[in-house]
Design brief:
281 residues; alpha+beta; seven-stranded mixed β-sheet; 7 helices; 45% helix; globular; binds zinc ion
Length: 281
Amino acid sequence: MNEYEAIVQSLSDIDQRIRQDNVGIFTEILILFDHVLVARTQPYSGYDGYQVGGRELRYALVDPGSGARNTRRPYYVGNQEANVSLADSEVVSLEQAWRWMTAWKADHAAYRQHLVQQQRAWREAMEAGASDMRAREYERLRMEQEPLPPPPQIWGPAQEKAWQAEVDRGEAAANEVLRDWDHRPRWVTVLLVGNVGPCDGCKARLKVFLYDLSVELFPKALVVVKSVYTGQEHKRGVRGGADRLETGYGYPDRAQQMEYRSPTGTVWRPWVRIATPWPVQ
Ligand SMILES: [Zn+2]
């Protein structure tokens, strides 16, 4: 799967999560080696972030013990910004992507295990979340038309097969890269896809992540980290409880609007912005 196809798949996954939950903010990370998709995370919400364990995350940008500033945080991100955005879906998505890449580099077996775990978690989430909507939709149709259509199936043998094929393709692609490890991957592209632009805290996290990939994991590769998001290009927002915090979602500059079309005709026009190394905004 190439970058274009992977983005279409991801935007469609996120739409599906939104349909299940009616509402929500989701992000998914796609990892490409030499322009071929080798792994992706499931679409996470902020709620999933809480489940994974908040402050233990590498990309929390606060000290796990005290909640104070840590040295990996760019100077222009305040303590409050880092704390308030701690449970954003971007944090858990980045954490999962980091775990995947370190596991892949360290041990090939762990890589496959990761993919299989992701597949299981995704399927369980789909089954759990889909049941209600499926039943309601079926009820609605039953009131309107005779004879009854078969109940819509969100996860079935076809999806199972497609997922398995994706796991196999990802493994084959990663194997290809492993054969010539000294020189490959030449390109590492990580895409953060979501239905809202990253907040100021998460924009800084993307810079830290970019640093980790280019310096620590893939010093010989050309690393690109991109944010791909639907909704507004840039939107001011206020969040937090008693101490309200102003933040901006998305990028105020240099985001480009691109068009993606699925084979079934769905069209998305998300904003795409390349993350730059800090302290450049
Ligand atoms: Zn955020």
